[in-house]
Amino acid sequence: MMGSENVEEFKEEMESLFLREESDRDFNGDKSNSNYRSAMSTLSDSPHPSILVTPADSDPLFAPPSYYSESRSPRSKPNGGNRDSSYLEPPSYADVIFSPFDDNSEINGSDDGGSRHSQSSDTLSRSSSSLSSDFIKITVSSPQKEQEATNSMIPGGTTYVTYQITTRTNLPEYGGSDFSVRRRFRDVVTLADRLAESYRGFCIPPRPDKSVVESQVMQKQEFVEQRRVALEKYLRRLVAHPVIRNSDELKVFLQAQGKLPLATSTDVASRMLDGAVKLPKQLFGESGGASAVEVVQPARGGRDLLRLFKELRQSVSNDWGGSKPPVVEEDKGFLEKKEKMHDLEQQIINASQQAESLVKAQQDMGEIMGELGLAFIKLTKFENEEAVFNSQRARANDMKNLATSAVKASRFYRELNSQTVKHLDTLHDYLGLMMAVQGAFADRSSALLTVQTLLSELSSLEGRAEKLEAASSKVFGGDKSRIKKIEELKETIKVTEDSKNLAIRQYEQIKGNNWCEVERLDRERRADFLNMMKGFVVNQVGYAEKIANVWTKVAEETSQYNRESS
Amino acid sequence: MESTEQPRSISGSMQSPRSPSSQPYLSVSVTDPVKLGNGVQAYISYRVITKTNLPEYQGPEKIVIRRYSDFVWLRDRLFEKYKGIFIPPLPEKSAVEKFRFSAEFIEMRRAALDIFVNRIALHPELRQSEDLRTFLQADEETMDRFRFQETGIFKKPADFMQMFRDVQSKVSDAVLGKEKPVEETTAAYEKLKHYIFELENHLAEAQKHAYRLVKRHRELGQSLLDFGKAVKLLGACEGEPTGKAFSDLGTKSELLSIKLQKEAQQVLMNFEEPLKDYVRYVQSIKATIAERGTAFKQHCELAETTKLKEINLDKLMLTRSDKVGEAEIEYREIKAESEEATRKFERIVNRMEDEIVRFQEQKTEEMGVAFHQFAKGQARLANSIADAWRSLLPKLEASSAV
């Protein structure tokens, strides 16, 4: 029987709990969403799954995709799944008051296979069973402000934030087991850009947004924290990718001390220069310094204006069905797949939105239960203090039972919710991955466009050569200037022919990458989604049982008031 | 819509019409709400069925048609005549316009009115009231006439609210000591007043949270419904076994959504409404406290005046004035009034003593029932949630093993 001092203590702890949460909730809608978001992101602490080591390939674009077959080991029972079991340590506020997590034993001992399953983390993991001893774990921490060194006369440079990126691994490709570097966000952008260039056709996890606007609106601290979490998630996804984790770019990013030795995306000036030098040559269709390899890189930014124009013209003519390009995206399978992916993306977006609402509703339920409990605690105290009649004391006792259970139930709702967030987070993750798929498909389309452009250029060059030859042959004794032109043209044709062949090879390679990636994604997604559902359901069952117990107790304690005839 | 169940938490042998005929009984039910009239004039009428063997009544069974304002009339009459007794409260008059004729609201009001009448019928003093008999038996025209006759003017609901507010402000003035200190100062009564005022605050808070709890149930139900639909659509995009799993998940989600809506309604009727009733009861007590204050003031003032008249009379008698006769008559009159005022005041005090005991016991009982039903409902809900989700597990296990 709770004496009044215990009620007081109880109340104070509950009140301080509530007060703490009150101050977190300044506005209703947005804050709860951002709380959800930060809850979602901070809950990604689950240890990274162990990943199969694959032989590093020098240039994944040109190596046959055979290594994929090695990683397709049977997905048998897991070990340390990345989507953890539902009964993680209760959050710290569980330490408050209720030592009776005696309910725990009830659940553990219960017959229900479902809840016990969760304990043995019988979750589907994407890790393959064989080489589970290899691991690589990345942590992003301790953001710090630093000053940009500036040579200008104006005093004071801009400040930026760096993050410490710690890697722990036992993979041999890395020259150590534990190392740390400091990077700023700009470095991450560079890494992402370089990866996008090197791994065309792959589903590369999208990097965190630059979101300049958010950085103005949010509190600096909150923004930095959000970014830290996003970076961690991004890097962990990168190392989870069986191909990208072996990339030189990533290794360099994680290991190289000091300034990041990757060409930056903003290094436009020098590139502009390169581009400008090459431009006249490209303009006249002459080989000059433009090597085949450079030509088949996707046309981008300040560099390849002319090429952009050409490809644009080509894509327009493709669309209008003007000239019939020899290589057309006839691959119905691809188009169907693209369509399906698009549908899937829409549904994932929808589902993840509804998941957010569900989480919010669960959260609200928990909160109001708690507040109700608190109100009744106050009433209990009040009645006890003012009691003149025994009927009052009896009522106070009934209220106390109700209040205790309401507060307990409230806590369970909130725990349930934090677990639910972890599970349904999978939907959010896949949103990012769907973007990666789009990227991969886009790589394919742009490679195809390059091929088509080269093909049509080739045919027009050949056409010109033919005409020149025809004209020249009519001139008796040969036409010196024309012959010279024909020779030069033939040079260009040869280079273009080489480029075309390269482009086709590249396109095929990308197609292959696409296919493997999509296969891998489908497989992993199936497993992840099933995992998610299982986790979610097990969670719901477990906590519903706990909540039921709590209320059954009150029903028993008030059984004398049962007025039903049955 | 017949009310076939016993009124909430009223116990006692007075209810059963099947008790041996030698035992006096008076049983009332408010049933069958029907919407009458059109547009702004529309209102709900109820069938009030009285079953009794009491001689004062016109027979073993009587059915009349009554509307909300008739109940208000009854309450006001009882309030006037039975000072000191905590008159059972009525459900609020005003309601958000579009809600006014919703099935939920109508049922809740009917139940509340049923309880109201039954509480009166069970009260040892109130049940003997002539006004109650009128209410239960008079034909509709007579009832209308009585209602209009109240003070010669047709009382609008606003008037009642104003009266109530006046009473409340008088009471709080008294408590805050704004008036001249013509009030009781016994420790016990002070304690009681303080208790009642504080109690109202606590209860109002609890009731507010209870109402929000109802809303949250509904919101959770809605979000489960939306989630279920979304997940089903997602499943349609996926191949097996994920597709089927999503479909099952969605179906369960939708099912649970229905259960949540049902529970929301239960919480509203069996938990939030009793809390609201508790609050109303406390407000009724505050009105009685105000009456007691008025009566006390009157008793004091008249006692004072009587004394003055007595002194005056003595003076006149000493001076052998010819105004003695007049003064003596005045004095006797005032004295009678004063004694009447004192009697009235003391009756209020006595009644209140009994009423407090009764009130506390009644509330413990009623709250106990409410808590019990609430706990049972929540347990039932949680269990069905657990069952529903649990039924998915074997299939999910099977799918994962593939």
UniProtKB/TrEMBL annotation, chain A:
The answer on whether this UniProt entry bears the keyword Electron transport reads: no
Q: Which UniProt keywords apply?
A: Coiled coil, Cytoplasm, Endosome, Golgi apparatus, Membrane, Phosphoprotein, Protein transport, Transport
Q: Bias category Basic and acidic residues: which stretches? A: 18-29
Q: Which residues form a coiled coil?
A: 334-361, 451-506
Residues forming the PX domain are: 141-260
- This protein's record includes keyword Membrane: yes
Q: Which SMART domains match?
A: PX
What is any one GO biological process for this UniProt entry? Answer: seedling development
Membrane protein topology class? Peripheral membrane protein
Q: Main site of residence?
A: cytoplasm
Biased composition of type Polar residues is found at 30-47
Q: Which Pfam families match?
A: PX, Vps5
The annotated region (Disordered) lies at 1-129
- Acidic residues bias (residue ranges): 1-12
Protein location: Cytoplasm; Endosome membrane; Golgi apparatus, trans-Golgi network membrane; Prevacuolar compartment membrane
Return the Gene3D superfamilies for the record.
Answer: Arfaptin homology (AH) domain/BAR domain, Phox-like domain
Composition bias of kind Low complexity appears in 116-129
- Mention one GO molecular function: phosphatidylinositol binding
GO cellular component terms listed in the entry, alphabetical order: cytosol; Golgi apparatus; multivesicular body membrane; retromer complex
Family membership, please give it. Belongs to the sorting nexin family.
This protein is called PX domain-containing protein
Protein source organism: Capsella rubella
UniProtKB/TrEMBL annotation, chain B:
Where does this protein have coiled-coil stretches? 324-362
Determine the domain of life of the protein's source: Eukaryota
GO MF: phosphatidylinositol binding
Q: Where is the composition biased (Low complexity)?
A: 9-26
> Does Coiled coil show up as a keyword for this record?
yes
Q: Does the keyword Coiled coil apply?
A: yes
Which parts of the sequence belong to the PX domain? 24-143
Cited SMART domains: PX
> What CDD domains does the database record attribute to this sequence?
BAR_SNX (cd07596), PX_SNX1_2_like (cd06859)
Q: What is this protein called?
A: PX domain-containing protein
Biological source species: Capsella rubella
